[in-house]
Amino acid sequence: MRGWARFFFFEACAWELLAFRARVRFKRNPLFNSFMELCIIGSGYVGLVSGACFAEVGHHVVCVDNDQRKVDMLQRGEIPIYEPGLEELVQRNVAAKRLRFTNSIAEGVDHGQIVFIAVPTPPQADGSVDLTYIERVAREIAGVLKPGQYRVVVDKSTVPVKTGEKVEATIRRYNHSAELDVVSNPEFLREGCAVPDLMHPDRIVIGSSSQRATDLMKRVYEPFQAPILVTDVNSAELIKHAANSFLSLKISYINAVSAICEASGADVEMVADGIGMDKRIGRNFLNAGLGYGGSCFPKDVKAFIAIAEELGVPFHLLKEVERINISQMERFLKKVREALWVLRDKRVAVWGLSFKPDTDDVRNSVAIELINKLAAEGALVTAYDPKGMGKALEYKLLAPTVRLASSPVEAVAGAEALLLATEWKEFACQDFAAVKAAMHTPLLFDGRNLLNPGTMRGMGFVYYGVGRP
Ligand code: UGA
Fold first, then answer.
1. Domain at 3-231: CATH architecture
2. What is the pLDDT of residues 5-18, one digit of tens each?
3. From ligand 1's centre to the CA of 178, what distance in Å?
4. Nearest Cα to 380, choosing from 335, 421, 350, 341?
5. How many CA atoms are closer than 13 Å to the CA of 214, on its beta-carbon side?
6. Does 180 contact ligand 1 (Cβ within 6 A)?
7. Cβ of 188 below 6 Å from ligand 1
8. Domain spanning 243-464: which CATH class is it, in words?
9. Where would a tag sit more exposed on the chain, N or C end, judged by fewer CB atoms within 10 A?
10. Between β-strands 228-231 and 347-351, what pairing exists: parallel, antiparallel or unpaired?
11. How far apart are CA 238 and CA 141, in angstroms?
């Protein structure tokens, strides 16, 4: 087996081993020799991956989704998203009858002593969080809870602080005899590595004011053998927004440093290595590039700003984090304009559409924003992405003049510049002699610092990175 194939093979084996060990631990532990019955409402990224991983360690899980088409697909073992390792996990656990899907909230709530809410919490125009779906689910749970049926209702979606209080009040308002506790249990998985993140979390946060609910939650997570932090509900809710905002801040910090590197001739990669070797700082999330995107960071930073504002404690630091994120793209485009002079009618190839590698998620993708800005200035863009093209077409996210290619090399045919916008490993392994030969002029703008500048220049490319000489 060669290079990447061997890497993926061993990675798959490692996951399998982790899951196996978790199952064995679960079965051997005398305190936890019985599985738990769980319900998860919402089969998006968080709900689906959580459901599959809970089933993998032995729990019996019913996932509820109001989209019947999605329910049918999932029940057949077909996955609506690309997430490494997820398809096998779902298929294995559906076959083992530990995981099933339904559109009936009554069936789910009847099955699960613990009911997880994992529905979307999209942003509103002013940046605050739209809690319509959470509120609706709370009312629906109230409508199906039977008298004497104790349930732990767990908020897994990313929600503003104090949402738990409102969920509990809503359920009690619509069902006076409801026996329940509401818990906050934020999820920290990343798209593209959601399965290993969930199987092997850094920490589990349980926000609860009830010992009974806390004990049940600990049983759910016992097989994962991760550190558990028990807090009050409000603190758990805040932890999620504070964590995502801090990671965004780290990215904006290094991006701001990258601008100083460009002005001074220093190399941001070396600076990041140098500061990241300090254990108090750490090297993760110090990769300079085109800025953060996706369905979490942009939304959560905005939401945290709005939450702080509403509580009367404006968070100016986070406004600067957002400003730096926007200016990073502008600085990159400026370099492209300076090199090509006029963009109108220039053939430009872009590698990358997804908001990050190993996912087909194109929501709030910086790559797509870049492409559309180029197209708006009249550039003739041809793009390629290993997984994101289907969804970009389905959601009609690209300007009408943008063409899609079937391979990285096809995308660069006749191009006057190549822009790398998402750091897929596939892009680093290209035959760059063939890439250069296919291009009209070998201008290479590496928006994610994926490639080695010396190697690329040695091959005859005019290489531009982010914050690198
Ligand atoms: C993020 C968090 O990392 C998860 O812990 C959290 O659970 C999730 O949001 C969520 O709230 O659901 P995710 O959005 O999947 O996960 O992706 P990340 O890997 O965090 O990347 C976010 C963005 O930051 C991407 O656009 C990525 O390209 C960018 N990034 C990341 C950088 O520009 N530089 C870095 O060094 C790291």
1. 3-Layer(aba) Sandwich (3.40)
2. 454 445 554 555 55
3. 38
4. 350
5. 14
6. no
7. yes
8. alpha beta
9. N
10. unpaired
11. 24
Q: Which atom of ligand 1 is nearest to the CA of 186?
A: 7
This prediction has a pTM of 0.92
Answer whether 213 contacts ligand 1 (Cβ < 6 A). Answer: no
Q: Is 355 in the pocket of ligand 1 (CB under 6 A)?
A: yes
Is 13 among the catalytic positions?
A: no
Question: In testing the pocket of ligand 1, which one of 119, 238, 251, 446 has its CB within 8 Å of the most ligand atoms?
Answer: 251
Whole-angstrom Cα distance, residue 410 to residue 367? Answer: 18
Say if ligand 1 is within 6 A of residue 285 CB: yes
Of ligand 1's atoms, which has the minimum distance to the CA of residue 244?
A: 2
Distance CA 335, CA 330 (A): 9
Helix (H) or strand (E) holding 254: helix 233-264
d(CA 367, CA 396): 14
The pLDDT of residue 30 is 44
The contacts of residue 400 (CB under 8 Å, 6+ apart) are none
pLDDT in tens, 6-65: 544 455 545 555 555 555 555 545 444 579 999 999 999 999 999 999 999 999 999 999
| Residue 104: per-residue pLDDT | 98
Query: How remote is the CA of residue 388 from the centroid of ligand 1, in Å?
Result: 17
Q: Which two tokens stand for residue 123?
A: 């942003």
Burial class, 123, CB count within 10 angstroms (exposed 0-12 / middle 13-18 / buried 19+): middle
Q: Where do you find CATH 3.40.50.720 in the chain?
A: 3-231, 243-464
Helix, strand and coil in the chain, % to nearest 5: 50, 15, 40
Residues contacting residue 30 through CB under 8 Å, at least 6 positions apart: none
Q: What is the pLDDT of residue 31?
A: 47
* Residue 157 · residue 296 · CB < 8 Å: no
Q: Which of 30-34, 172-176, 346-350 has the lowest mean pLDDT?
A: 30-34
- Cβ of 324 less than 6 Å from ligand 1: no
Most ligand 1 atoms within 8 A of CB, residue of 297, 354, 364 to mutate = 297
Considering the candidates 53, 193, 261, 296, report the single residue annotated as catalytic: 296
Gap between the Cα atoms of 344 and 361, Å rounded: 29
**E-strand spans in 93-203?**
99-102, 114-117, 151-155, 180-184
pLDDT digit string, tens, across residues 221-278:
999 999 999 999 999 999 999 999 999 999 999 999 999 999 999 999 999 999 999 9
Strands 417-420 and 462-464: unpaired
Is the shortest distance between the CB of 93 and ligand 1 below 6 Å?
Answer: no
